[in-house]
# Entry
Amino acid sequence: MINGRIPLAVPVVGAAEAANLQACIDTTFVSSVGPFVTEFERKVAEATGGIEAVATSAGTTGLHAALVALGVERDDLVICPSFTFIASANAISHAGATPWLFDIDESWVIDLDQVEAALDRETERRGDDRIHTVTGRRVAAMLPVLTLGNAPHPDRLRALAERFDLPVLVDAAAALGGDAWGEPIAALGELAVISFNGNKIATAGGGGAVVGRDAALLKSLRHLTTTARVSADYSHDRVGFNYRMTNLQAAVGCAQMDRLPDFVAAKRRIAARYAEAFADLAGVSAFPQTPGSNCWFSGVVLDAGAPMAASELAARLNGDGIEARTFWKPVHLQAPYADAPRVTMDRCEDLWSRIVTLPCSTNLSDSDQGRVIAATRSALGSA
# Structure
């Protein structure tokens, strides 16, 4: 609780983070070179099942560099769910490509059946490329998003990628600490990207990390994110990016990674309590979970039988000193992507305006969660 108000999702930092930051100051390693960067990358790789990790300045820059490392080029199409934070689509645009937007399934992750049907119906093989027949554009990659820490089934994703010969970049921004149906996050595709923004399950005050299991690909990615510099005399062999994480950020991230198991346990405990607390309410359902989800965010979905709209419930709770929000507006409804190619969006168009996220900071106390539950039930007419 902060000044009597229960926040939605705030970082939990303390003495360990402070000590690491002081070590940066004492040693003057504050920029993109320093021992905490190396340690942070090791810890993230271990937590995700990758052979290594490349720390980046943000999750979005990690996605951008990863797309380029995978060979995505200007005017390509990249398969992406519309129900995601807009950064997923923006990273595709930064690479010069265009998102090809798809709906979601009941777990709020990309609908792979819909993707397969569209690839069968709207694309053809030309030489080494998969071409979208109407636009003539190359379909260069798939970018599934692990919404709330949920994941598509690895076998289904892998089979689809192999059938159409498409590399997979996983937007695992919020999925750290969980797994995908028992498989490590780094095993889902060629590369996966984690975010360490302040509202994520572990934070570095910002930043990201790209993980994977292909040493050559990760070496290429690391080269790209360090301005493609090849020698100390400032020689560069391609257009690269200044996308490295600082030692200051990594210092915070290292301390956070040491607490990751406790953070994940707290997130799952909070989600389970909300689900139980609202199970008897008509027109109200919990967020979905796939096996291994870290339950990044928790909240409720208001169905047609609910007594009020999601925006009204969020406003009521905020008036009671409880931070609650609606969730992502689909990408195809955003101005920059109004003309992006897409399929039918029945599920996400129906869903997005019915979601309310509830407080789920990893230090949320039992009593504060009880207050959230009581206020939510009262607002919905069932105190």
